[in-house]
Amino acid sequence: MTDGRSVAADAESVDDLLEGVRDDGLAGYNYAYLDEHTKREVRRGVLKAIALPGHQVPFASREMPLARGWGTGGIQTSLSLLGPEDTFKVIDQGSDESVNAANIRRLATRTADVETTTDATEASVIQTRHRIPEEVLDDDQILVLQVPITDPLRRVDGSDDANRRRHAHGNYSKMWVALYENVVEYGEIKLSSRYPVLVDDRYLMDPSPIPRWDVSKLDDADNLFLFAAGREARMYAVPPHTDVEPLAFEDRQFQVERFSEQACAYCGSEDTFLTEVETDDGDRRYACNDTAFCEKRQTDSELSKAHHRGGTDHAWGPPTDPGVPYGTDGDREERRPAADASGGDYGQSCGDCVEHTGPAVGDNQCPVCDSVVACADVDFELHDGEVLGIVGESGSGKSSLAEMLALDSDATAGDVRYDAYGGNMLSADYRAQHELQNEHIGMVHQHVQDGLELSFSGGGNVAEKLLAAGWRHYGDIRERVESLFRETEVPVSRMDDATETYSGGMQRRVQIAKAIANDPGLVVLDEPTTGLDVSVQARVLDMFRRLQREQDVATVVVSHDLDVIRLLADRTLVMRHGRVIETGLTDRIMEDPHHEYTQTLINSVL
Amino acid sequence: MILDIDAVSKTFEMHVLDGKTVPGLADVRFSVDEGEFVAIVGESGSGKSSLLKCIHRTYEPTSGTIRFRTEDGEIDLASCSDRDVLAVRGSELGYASQFLDEIPRVPAVDVVARPMWEQGTDREAARERARELLAALSLPADLFDAYPATFSGGERQRVNFARAIGPQPRLLLLDEPTSALDPETRASALELLDSYLPTSTAMIGVFHNYEVVRRIADRVVVLADAELQRVVDVADYTPEVLA
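Output (structure tokens, whole complex):
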């Protein structure tokens, strides 16, 4: 790692310095793009970071000629390290060929006059985003990782100030609680990236968004790891042979991603980090994420990850047998509450979901694609003027269903046919969905802040719907809002007051006014009475039922409260584990429940 | 004939009791003509309410057919779609339960008027008719605009009764709708069935009171232990189990 001066060692001035590199295509730029003061500042940061492994060191990050988030920290670090004798490799999520990698490589070639390579064993400096190469790095190599978020504690607390105090005190209990919650939810720690690690038994560190697969490569490595975040102006380092320990419980060990029975479609490797890719004709296949190593494996399928170091004795990454999980958790089955056998299986987002997820294995998250299944295989029809109730305990998928119907969230699969649209509205384009939301579907959110802008006036909130539907006459809008306020029994005299000054019941009624403003054909109510006091609940229910009958609007009411469903809904779906387990006339569901879970639910009413 | 019940059975599967099945009704069959009043009698637990609920589809019969001749043709209430049931409830098929179940904090007059305006009657006309019905049941006029939750059992039952007969359904199911009424009010309630409802209205009612049965029923269906014992004309009926 030489610095810029070696190019023009006898330079007396900046002009001389520039003269010395003029032929290298660097006209107007200092060697390696950055000025020498900046490089010195970055190198000071690097030295401090090495001295305090895992500690976030501030540095005077410069403005760079590319967008934030494109590796400005990594580029400053790489360019401060590079000299003409260096060989530079750039990886973007495993690939040397992405636009970003190619551009950074070109910048280094033009301004720092370095050789570039795609071979991880040949490079002296490797800049990378989101991966550590499969091939073992050596003690003459530096890996520079681009970092979007420096502090692992930000996952659990948004206050950097509080988090700095936690680092100073070595108090990482809040992160531990987050891991605990993760185990409670999934049975193992399933943070998919940015897995928190303890460096040198002192600082908790965010290893940047590398997969868990790469985390173990940080421990006792021969090479130097530098992590730099340009936007946050912070960097940190893992020097060679430093202990790096992923946080985990004694009985819930750190686990890498598993690709059971899968091999790279190109080189056949089973001991590399695989990415699922979809081909043009819709097939899904797995392929090595590290494309440069994949190419080598394609010529020599037996090639060891430490081939250039003369053997396989060096530990690097997870075990090579994909059948052996990394770490053990032998008592997992016993400690976990018994899986619920009454629900169905989960999943449809990847080919492995259905087999490997579901209550039968105590999980609603797919171990391959990490997707959580909120609701699945829900079918129903709704006619004009009909009220459909959806009941189930929290987490049963009710609200997810409501959000999809209101087009507030995307469905993974399925059709929602709506007369006003004509086709499957889930696959409508953005513009059509927007129009449906504005003019044909009204949504009353459970949380008022999701449905109303509280700093706007109540009238303004209702007017928003009209404006979105193209109303442009102020007087007409006022008149319509006033009539909606009267219909929903909100005092018209309050329509110009900020919505945050309204009572909870009034806010809910303003949401209903907003939902029906454009005479929609479908209204979705998500927990319409939750959080209201009992007397107000009754008023809202009565008013809504009256409006619903008068306007003959098809309605979906989602509630965990059986009384609300009983008083509003004609028919009811009972949901559990994201599935509809029973459907029927509301009074039939309440008085003659068939499904075991429905019987329990009805019998649980206080 | 407006209603024909054939071989209707209902069993309940109790998952709490490890899937034990409890019989509610077994092989019940009888029919009801227009304008006829059929009383259902039997001891507690004999299946009287279950039978009414099966006709109303509040219970889903396990087997059998319940053919109901509506103005638009015949449907089988035991097997038709939920939507068909919803379509006939109200205007064609009415049900008065023992207990009032309504949205809280709705005035009594609106509780009674709601089914009528939901059937399409003008709001004020429905309220007016509701007041007349409540008055006929001697509910004090100053209670019309009060909330039924604060009423006595008898007052609530009157509101409930008025609500059920309000829309003048072609077939009315009555589940002990006068059990909490004093004899005088009960008499006016039964009077109202005659005067307010068209003569073609068919009714099936569960009553515990022999005098009531004798006064209004044309025929009597006797149930015991979920099974149909006999169907007899009221003149031939002797109340061996009635108190």
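The first helix of chain B runs from residue 48 to 56.
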